[in-house]
Amino acid sequence: MDHNTQPPTPTPTPTPASASPGSTAQGLLAGKVAFLTGAGRGIGAAAARLFAREGARVLLAARTEAQLKAVTEEVRASGGTADYVVCDLADAASVRAAVDRTVDLYGRLDVAFNNGAIGQHPGPMDLTEEAEFDALYGVNLKGVWQALVAEVSAIRATAGTGAIVNVSSVGSWRGNPVLPAYGAMKRAVNSLTESAAVTYGPEGIRVNAVAPGGTLTDMLHAWDAETPGVIDQVSAHTPLRRAADPAEIAEAAAWLLSDRASYVTGEVLAVDGGLRAA
Fold this sequence. Notes:
Blueprint: E1 33-37, H1 42-53, E2 57-62, H2 65-77, E3 81-86, H3 92-106, E4 111-114, H4 130-157, E5 162-167, H5 180-200, E6 205-212, H6 218-226, H7 230-237, H8 246-257, E7 268-271
Helix pairs in contact: 1-2, 1-8, 3-4, 4-5
């Protein structure tokens, strides 16, 4: 063949990867309504952007309205469907109202991503203040429980079946002397995830968790500021020799929430660059 003569190029079939930002017909979460906590920054904000690109209509929830508004406007500017609600995970009424707002706006709830959490000041157990322990419990464990209850109720009443992903931590699987209360709450989230999966699996509601390793969020940067060198240390102990971008954690959550993970429930998926195996 004459190299200067090219055969006609067929029109490519659009795929999620090649589609324009506003094209969501073939996305991983196409047609689904998603509720996300902790969606104003970090992993939650990355998930909001990704879920919308993958075809979901998203409702973002967090405590800081300015951050929620910025992410919502970004999603809309890229052609996605998004709105937000200010929500305090430590307040049961606030959590219920946020989930109800999702149904009011979009008519249903299919999937939920329970990402919202607070960090603790690094230090040994005997130096962790009771007030800080209680705050961690109220948001990182009780808040997840409250969200799960509200989400299951909304899925059951509207979509009928669906999926939920909680955010745990690689620090939940072993002793965590530097972040003892944080690690304890995340280990409890693993148990809550498994219990919910067993309880609601017969109804067609799947519940899983992702357990990130070192991820470049505000929480990790704050820890690094208090204990300089932490990011470098975590990266050095991670087989991939780097911290994760929040978007990489969001990708794992999107798959678990999608129909492609239809036979996966009760799992706590490490997304940690191999840190748990090291």
